[in-house]
Predict the 3D structure of the following.
Amino acid sequence: MSAESKTFEDIRAAVLSCHKSCTLQDKMKFYDSWAENYDQDLAILDYTAPCVAANRISSHFSGDREAAVVLDVACGTGMMAQQMKRHEFERFVGVDGSEGMMEVARQTKLYQDLKPCMLGEEPLPVLWGLFDLVVIVGALSVGQVPVSVVRELCKSTKPGGYVCMTTRGNQDNLEYKAALEAELKQMEGEGLWSCVEVTEVEKWERAVSEKEEGYIPAETSWTGPRCFQI
Ligand SMILES: C[S@@+](CC[C@H](N)C(=O)[O-])C[C@H]1O[C@@H](n2cnc3c(N)ncnc32)[C@H](O)[C@@H]1O
């Protein structure tokens, strides 16, 4: 089916089948096969996450944008770098478990480096304390990147740098979201970072589950120095 003739129902079926992938390897294969049409399909879902996250980053980041090195974890096809480029960020390193998604990201020519990694199964393949900004958008959710990875995101950030994270607030992700919040609080207690702002985003993307209709909500929060969460 050509990308142009796809309907919301076609995309919905594809996303639901992705949720059914049982192993991480299966999920990555799914993303490999989705990569070519991912951006067009997500437009049909009104996926606002990269745009919202980049706007939040832009309103909080006061450093030198051209010099700032950004680590885009679970970068997918590179939507985050494209959105951040609009706000004058220039230097990106991407990490993802899907070669197919990274191949599309490579074609944007925005990434200085793209590194394969099965997050949660392999260590984040970067040096600690190197990045001014670490972003993870659309991937901290049930069945994708495990909560434990946020410690690695924190470690890879420069002291005084920031981490931007997003997580969904819809039914099937509530348990994951609670575990993520508990981990962030725990890390705050350990003095690793502090939460500055939490913002709810009402319309994150169109809901695809049978149990929901309309739009999925999500949360935006700003924590720092070292971390903010969306
Ligand atoms: C919904 S897409 C989001 C991509 C991009 N950040 C965006 O907002 O468009 C999720 C991405 O996370 C990657 N991903 C999910 N779980 C992963 C894991 N455990 N390890 C590595 N990559 C993972 C997928 O390959 C996919 O590219």
